[in-house]
Specification:
The structure is a single chain. This protein is an alpha/beta fold and 1101 residues long. It contains 37 helices and 40 strands. The strands form eight sheets. It has a seven-stranded antiparallel sheet with strand order 14-13-10-11-12-15-16, with helices on both faces. Strands 31-30-27-28-29-33-34 form a seven-stranded antiparallel sheet, sandwiched between helices. Helix 2 crosses helix 12, helix 19 crosses helix 20 and helix 31 crosses helix 36.
């Protein structure tokens, strides 16, 4: 070990006894740096990489470098044109990147800030000779280090070389090798880990040979190098992560230790995690710290951050290195937010030559970055799942990640942060007790045992049920292998809950009430125990001298004063809120990511903060999501990391003395609070809560439409299931069934008859308990249009009109869209424009508004109106070059469109196409279809002057890209067959061989098209599955025959997704795909920066 190891994280102090910088200037031999983003939001790679990419762009521009950014995701802050000097929204493919490198000639490539996507692409660019050809240097991590960290066999050899223990394992490249490895390692269960993948994609735990063969086969397919690691199973062991940084002077620091609440076997992204590690002894921590430094040195990560995962046997103390990420990882964002130490920013600075002792700590403004952060609080992260969107999928948590978001909370103790994190999830739980899955009705022993033994999203709540049922901690440990220390903490919470239920508000003592608050119980929880309103509890405790206090995140356990106002709430300590006389406005964030409410809303919140600061207001951000740019400590003037509940939001608003709050930007979360916030004295700026509610209230909305002379499809409102059946007969089928006050189309269905209605109506009512369900006449084969508007209360402008490529019936979040509209004539566009103006006026919109229209038989219908920010706002803003969210925030403070110099509608003269990205490969067994309920996790954008190329770019970005040769399987419902003939003719003319089932092939033959015949899956072989698995099928066009795809249809889609085959499930989508293929065959696609599109191709309407 060197002198800089072990107990001296900052070598400066060993050198001279006082802080004195070594002289090591930044690199001046490079002028321009290419950063590759992470692409669309997917499971395993979410908006934490927008956070890291945004930090890197700012850090490098600050140093005077020209920053060239490539990303395909328009919903990100990093792709706003001001964050990089040159921004390319292009597919993240070798083809596109090669063109960009040839065009821009960057001196360096920073590969470590765009997740696994950027890392893999950087290696491919290096292997293809592109970097050498254009003299591009890889900085931050060299190819050899990336390979050593990512290649399972090389990593294992490296660990053995430095004397660290690894799990028994073997790397294989075929199923036959895998079977041999299984025999060599020993008994099942075995863990399968594919190489060069993210979020454990393609991996899993095999308990028997059949499972083993299935997971290995899938893992070999998913791995870009067709390689998997077969590993002894360490189920039940404790799991830890160390976030580590290293600089060119070989100074190493641990930023944060993180402990998994769940034992080994659950992907760390799906596990509850706690920082700092709670159950390590000092000796174990030091051993893990030393091992981390040895790992980062041996792998060869010269500068930047790495995440290293360890496992520890609770019985023997054996410590095993599991894996490392030689890059900024998902956990890096969590560690940055947990400590206030901006890992991505510092990684970027280290990559250009700085050392840790030369970089100032942003929080203290006094200490250098070579000081290891020290925290005097506890951070808990709990993942958010959306299994309800994927009926039929297995909800068991394994080594393959399935969560779509996460909430983080900070408290002085584990108990406090744990309860705050549970209520931050926004799943109905009020904490560890109270609300959904927190009642007094104890499930059966069989149910409890099943939920404890099998890791699942609800297990944490069944730990409470087990305690209430009298289980001993020893029994719970045997069932779960969760460390006894954590179980004891939960038992203390549960025991106090029992004690509180014996108390009354009038008689409870001060010490017990203070203890309840220190244990993380909310006023709402305590009120429910006492049978009273939460406000009475709030008043009582404040009268007793138990106020909520806010403490600073300072990176140094209060050793130095924090200059950056980044707060968390607690009790029994000094209030550290820094007072100011500036006028303050609160921005309420969106909470944890989920399908239907993701990065697009955080984007709007960030722009609100920028807008307020530009106008001289103090921006106060409140949010609970550690992945986002909005929770970066330098995005707002003040940041509060708090649950987004009524009592938590009011506490911040009142203590800060805010003069207003923005609820339009965080999705449904702040909207659900708006009415109660206003009733409690909060000044909601912008569109009023009454107008927002009027758009949701069916009767009020009907009156508004009548007043402005606009139509909507025939509809009725049902208050219960029986009434729904009666009203359905009056409206007539097909019907669109939709709950009120939901986001992301939760519980929405298109039904064609009474049987289909009966099969889904209960789920529709469950999606929004206590609220009515709306029954709309469904307009088949109608054109659907999303319109984003901005209004100052007097003047309204259309920001963008996005025509859906699919017909009506596909949720706008899942639909492909084109801007400007690609089939509408000018007359209809003007009708839509005037209708939008009338609706904005009628709803008294001040800020943003999204309207969904349908056009059928040249008649315009209003489907719904949302007087708030929509998920298309970032896309439209990029397309027209106008920051709509920023302007709308300024309007909410009283500015007018005229004052903001935005007085004319803008429209691109090129094509801007949005495509959705789906997580079906993570949820095997679920139904694969496009419908009124949103199921996509992210989106991509394609830009080009040719519609076909723009669409082709979206497919390449969303993956898999469009094929330009090969075989196509066409299987459509009967009513689509005439249109399918036209598609088949075009595909044949483009050189494709068309296949279909016997009946469809005969139909094609009657229309002059020769199609290859395949059996239906149930009828015989060969069928389409055989051709897919043999690599002989390049594209599937399959339209469903009813509300749900038939079993065979779904199987075809599942296998196509698993084998990375291009699939289209609507004829309109297939038509756009054929246009894309035709364009790709005719010409080479070009790459252009976003700035050049906006400067040259956007004009007033």
């Amino acid at each position: 070990m060197g002198i800089f190891d072990s107990f001296h994280p900052c070598p400066v102090f060993l050198y001279c006894g006082k802080f004195e910088k070594f002289i090591m200037p930044k690199r001046v031999d490079i002028e321009s740096i290419l950063i590759i983003g992470a692409g669309p939001i997917i499971i395993g790679q979410a908006c934490e990489f927008d956070y890291s990419g945004t930090q890197a762009c700012k850090a490098l521009k600050e140093e005077g470098y020209k920053v060239i950014l490539v990303n395909s995701n328009p919903a990100t802050i990093m792709t706003d044109p001001e964050f990089a000097d040159v921004t390319y929204i292009e597919p993240l493919t070798i083809d596109a990147l090669t063109k960009i490198i040839a065009k821009e000639k960057p001196n360096a490539l920073l590969p470590t800030l765009g997740g696994q996507t950027a890392l893999n692409l950087s290696l491919e660019l290096d292997a293809a000779g592109v970097l050498a050809e254009h003299n591009v240097e890889m900085i931050g991590a060299i190819p050899a280090a990336i390979k050593k960290g990512e290649d399972r066999e090389l990593f294992k050899e490296a660990m053995v070389k430095i004397g660290l223990d690894v799990a028994k394992s073997r790397t294989v490249k075929s199923l036959a090798e895998a079977k041999d490895a299984a025999k060599e390692i020993g008994a099942f269960p075995l863990i399968i880990r594919p190489s060069f993948t993210l979020g454990g994609a393609g991996g899993g735990i095999a308990y028997n040979r059949e499972e083993f063969e299935d997971i290995v086969t899938n893992g070999l397919d998913v791995s870009p190098v067709s390689e998997v690691l077969i590993e002894e199973c360490l189920l039940g062991w404790k799991e830890y992560e160390m976030e580590v940084m290293r600089d060119r002077k070989d100074q190493c620091v641990v930023i944060c230790s993180i402990e998994n609440f769940d034992p080994m076997g659950v992907h760390t992204g799906d596990s509850i995690t706690v920082a700092p590690a709670m159950t390590l002894s000092d000796r174990e921590y030091q051993a893990m710290r030393d091992a981390s430094f040895a790992v980062i040195r041996e792998i060869g990560v010269e500068t930047g951050g790495s995440n290293i995962q360890f496992s520890l046997s609770p019985e023997t103390g054996r410590m095993v290195v599991i894996e490392m990420n030689p890059r900024v990882s998902r956990s890096s964002a969590l560690a940055s937010k947990a400590t206030g130490f901006p890992i991505a920013k510092f990684a970027a600075k280290l990559a250009v030559g700085y050392s840790l002792d030369e970089i100032q700590n942003d929080i203290t403004k006094k200490t250098p970055a070579c000081f290891e952060p020290t925290i005097d609080y506890v951070v808990t992260k709990i993942p958010r799942f959306t299994f309800e969107k994927f009926q039929g999928a297995d909800d068991t948590l394994t080594s393959s990640m399935k969560s779509v978001g996460e909430a983080m909370a900070i408290g002085l103790t584990f108990k406090e942060s744990f309860q705050k994190a549970l209520r931050s999830l926004e799943t109905g739980a009020w904490g560890f007790g109270g609300g959904k899955l927190g009642g007094d009705d104890i499930p059966t022993e069989e149910t409890i045992n099943g939920k404890l033994v099998r890791p699942n999203a609800e297990r944490v709540f069944y730990l409470r049920y087990a305690l209430k049922a009298g289980y001993s901690l020893e029994k719970i440990f045997e069932l779960t292998k969760i460390d006894p220390w954590f179980l004891y903490q939960l038992k203390q919470i549960s025991d106090l809950e029992d004690e509180l239920k014996k108390e009354k508000l009038d008689t409870i003592g001060k010490n017990r009430l203070r203890t309840a608050k220190e244990y993380g119980f909310s006023d709402r929880q305590i009120g429910s125990f006492f049978g009273c309103d939460w406000k009475l509890v709030n008043e009582k405790r404040k009268d007793m001298g138990i106020p909520t206090v806010f403490r600073l995140v300072d990176t140094c356990a209060a050793e130095f004063e924090a200059e950056t106002p980044y707060y968390y709430s607690s009790y029994g300590a000094e209030n550290e809120v820094i007072p100011s006389n500036k006028k303050k406005i609160m921005i309420i964030g969106g909470g944890p990511n989920r399908i239907g409410q993701g990065i697009e809303f955080d984007y709007c919140c960030v722009h609100a903060s920028f807008a307020l600061q530009e106008l001289g207001y103090e921006s106060v951000m409140i949010n609970s999501n550690p992945e986002t740019v909005s929770t970066d400590y330098d995005t707002s003037d003040k940041l509060y990391f708090e649950p987004l509940t009524l009592e938590d939001v009011l506490e911040v608003y009142n203590q800060e003395g805010c003069s207003g709050a923005i609820v339009q930007y965080g999705g449904q979360t702040p909207l659900n609070l708006a009415t109660e916030l206003k009733a409690n004295g909060v000044n909601i700026i912008g569109t009023s809560p009454e107008s927002i509610d009027a758009a949701e209230d069916r009767e009020l909305f009907k009156q508004i439409l009548d007043e402005v002379g606009l139509k909507q499809p025939d509809n009725l409102t049902a208050l219960n299931e029986l009434q729904a059946y009666e009203l359905a007969k009056k409206v007539g089928f097909p019907l669109l069934v939709r709950p009120s006050f939901v986001l992301g189309g939760r519980g929405m269905f298109i039904v064609h008859d009474m049987d289909e209605l009966r099969s889904v109506i209960h789920e529709a009512f469950e999606a929004s308990p206590g609220k009515p369900v709306l029954l709309d006449k469904f307009l088949e084969d109608a054109i659907e249009l999303d319109v984003d508007c901005i209004s100052d209360g007097k003047k309204t402008l259309v920001g963008g009109m996005l025509e859906h490529i699919e017909f009506a019936g596909v949720h706008s979040g899942d639909a492909a869209m084109a801007l400007p509209p690609h089939t509408l004539n000018e007359e209809m566009i003007e009708i839509v424009r005037q209708a939008s103006y009338r609706l904005a006026k009628a709803l008294k919109v001040v800020g943003l508004m999204n309207i969904q229209f349908a056009i059928k038989d040249n008649e315009l219908y209003v489907l719904e109106v949302n007087p708030r920010a929509s998920r298309t706002v970032p896309f439209v803003s990029k397309a027209i070059g106008v920051p709509l969210a920023k302007l709308a925030a300024k309007i909410m403070t009283g500015k007018t469109l005229d004052e903001l110099n935005f007085t004319e509608e803008m429209s691109p003269k090129h094509w801007c196409i949005k495509e959705a990205v789906f997580p079906f490969v993570r949820f095997l067994g679920s139904t694969i279809r496009l419908g009124p309920e949103m199921r996509s996790t992210g989106e991509v954008m394609g830009l080009d002057e040719d519609f076909g190329i723009a669409f082709a770019k979206t497919q390449a970005a969303a993956k898999p890209g469009l094929p330009v040769e090969g075989n196509v399987f066409l299987s459509v419902k009967d009513q689509d067959k005439p249109k399918a003939v036209e598609l088949a003719q075009k595909l044949v003319s483009l050189g494709f061989k068309v296949y279909s089932t016997i009946g469809t092939a005969d139909y094609f033959k009657e229309n002059g098209i020769e199609a290859g015949k395949l059996f239906r899956i149930a009828e015989g072989r060969p069928n389409v599955l055989d051709l897919i698995k043999n690599g002989e099928m390049q594209m599937i066009i399959n339209t469903p025959s009813g509300m749900m795809p038939r079993k065979d249809e779904n199987r075809i889609r599942s296998v196509a997704y698993a084998n990375n085959i291009c699939i289209m499930t609507t004829l309109t989508g297939a038509t756009a795909a054929v246009a894309g293929i035709s364009a790709l065959k005719e010409k080479e696609f070009d790459v252009r920066s976003l700035q050049s599109y906006v400067n040259k191709n956007v004009a007033t309407v």
